[in-house]
Design a protein that fits this description.
The structure holds two protein chains of two kinds. Chain A is mainly alpha-helical. Chain A has eight helices and no strands. Chain A starts with 7 loop residues before the first helix and ends with a helix. The model of chain A has no long low-confidence stretch (mean pLDDT 91). Chain B is built from nine helices and ten strands. The chains are: A mainly alpha, B alpha/beta.
Chain lengths: 230, 242
């Protein structure tokens, strides 16, 4: 069955696939995770705050993002960000931000909604007495959050956060819709150029599979190591 | 030093504190007792503003707790509190539990804070546990660390919210001993507890609460000798039978 296949195409395109494609994929994944966790945590704090309106606004944002397909958001951002940039800076023309920046902003803001829900669950999993103890010692809101609540919430949620990152790693392949060359995009380009669709897509699938599987094993291992003794 | 005057509090339509008034002078030890659900814990949590209250006033060292203009974190830093479930910070070492608020709230440098922490660990007899995490200690040890953590802030008064209720019987005394020593040193204390032995030994006054009301507020000898209210008599006979 595999006699007509040319597996050599993979070897020949390895540098392009990994140095161009995978590098972009990994970079996007890590930067969007970092940004998403920071913004997501702030959103979670907003959702849990009792400042009138603030939790409502954050809730609307999270629910809105979570009810939209990612591809749609990527598309929208790609076309909208230049105009938003123009509107903010007051420039005479739409600001060209480039596909990478657009993708990064999209994924960061999109993932922030999911990280928000994870961090919210994490914060709520910390017993109320912890916040009371911090308050009773005279800590203000930000000290109590930064020193007591968030470190514990974050540690409890690391496995879930990393699992979300693995999903994000797979989702980054959707940037092909704005013609960015991530790993999948690179594989796709070679496949079409050389007419080797089956080989390249099989190889791409195998790479995603191996990386995701290895990462989830690592998460499981990590889970045991970082657990807080209670 | 602590004045509670006509304090009432509601959870929705349910009134949990009814017109409570009492006073604690400097150096006085007051034990608050009563059946569960009588509002004892709620009342002492009102004293440092952990629980808001709708009516009445509470002043600590002349500062009104319920006043919106009061800097609550600043006031709380001067009142120590010990919780039923210890509430040590499980992700920090014992030493860090003791020094964190000293550094972040009082602005002490970490060397001074650690020194203070070490002295207090010695006082509660746990010097060798400084680098352990709370989860590695027994309940009694954790509660003693919690007391040391509160003392590290040099509080003007200490609030104890059922400090021995979550402990195994054999660990109760090690915690009570620390509290007795503290009382003898002249610390102003409000203690919510069922430990009547402790009350007899160190309390100047006993406040008895039932259904959100302060039913009796009497010097310790009078309270145990001839409680005036029927409810306090019933409570005492039940608790002393055990």
């Amino acid at each position: 069955m595999f006699t007509n296949f040319d597996w050599d195409v993979i070897i020949r395109s390895l540098p392009y696939l990994f140095l161009d494609g995978m590098r972009f994929t990994i970079m996007l994944t890590f930067m969007a995770t970092a940004g998403g966790i920071v913004i997501g945590t702030l959103l979670a704090l907003a959702r849990l705050s009792n400042i009138p309106g603030l939790s409502h606004v954050a809730g609307v944002y999270v629910n809105l993002i979570r009810s939209m397909p990612l591809v749609l958001v990527i598309f929208w951002f790609y076309f909208l960000v230049p105009y938003i940039g123009q509107w903010i800076t007051g420039a005479s023309r739409p600001i060209q931000v480039g596909a990478f920046l657009s993708a990064l902003v999209t994924f960061t803001l999109f993932e922030a909604a999911y990280f928000c829900e994870i961090m919210r669950a994490g914060i709520q999993s910390i017993p109320r007495g912890q916040a009371q103890a911090a308050q009773a010692l005279g800590m203000n809101y930000w000290t109590a959050m930064g020193e007591i609540i968030l470190p514990q919430a974050f540690r409890n949620m690391v496995p879930v956060l990393l699992t979300q990152t693995i999903i994000l790693f797979q989702d980054t392949s959707l940037v092909y819709v704005i013609s960015v060359t991530d790993f999948f995009g690179a594989a796709s380009k070679v496949a079409q150029r050389d007419g080797r669709l089956v080989e390249m897509y099989l190889f791409a699938a195998a790479v995603y599979f191996v990386i995701s599987l290895a990462a989830s094993y690592w998460v499981r291992h990590l889970q045991h190591r970082i657990a807080i003794i209670r | 030093m602590i004045t509670i005057s006509k304090v009432s509090k509601w959870y929705g339509t349910m009134q949990v504190l009814k017109n409570c008034s009492t006073e604690v002078a400097k150096g006085e030890v007051v034990v608050v007792c009563g059946p569960s659900g009588s509002g004892k814990s709620t009342l002492i949590k009102c004293v440092n503003g952990l629980e808001p209250f709708e009516e009445g006033t509470i002043t600590v060292d002349g500062i009104s707790v319920g006043d919106r203009k009061t800097n609550l974190p600043k006031l709380r830093a001067r009142i120590g509190m010990v919780f039923q479930h210890f509430e040590l910070f499980p992700h920090l070492s014992v030493m860090r539990n003791l020094s964190l608020a000293q550094v972040k709230v009082l602005g002490r440098d970490s060397k001074t804070a650690d020194e203070k922490g070490r002295k207090l660990l010695e006082r509660v007899g746990l010097t060798s546990h400084a680098e352990k995490f709370p989860g590695q200690l027994s309940g009694g040890q954790q509660q003693r660390v919690a007391i040391a953590r509160a003392l590290a802030m040099d509080p003007i008064a200490m609030l104890f919210d059922e400090p021995t209720s979550a402990l195994d019987p054999e660990m109760i005394n090690e915690v009570l001993d620390v509290m007795v020593a503290l009382a003898k040193d002249g610390m102003t204390m409000i203690v919510v507890t069922h430990e009547m032995g402790f009350a007899r030994k160190v309390a100047n006054r006993v406040v008895f609460m039932d259904k959100g009301e302060i039913v009796e507020d009497a010097p310790t000898a009078d309270f145990f000798g001839k409680p005036r209210s029927e409810r306090a008599q019933m409570f005492l006979s039940k608790i002393l039978q055990q």
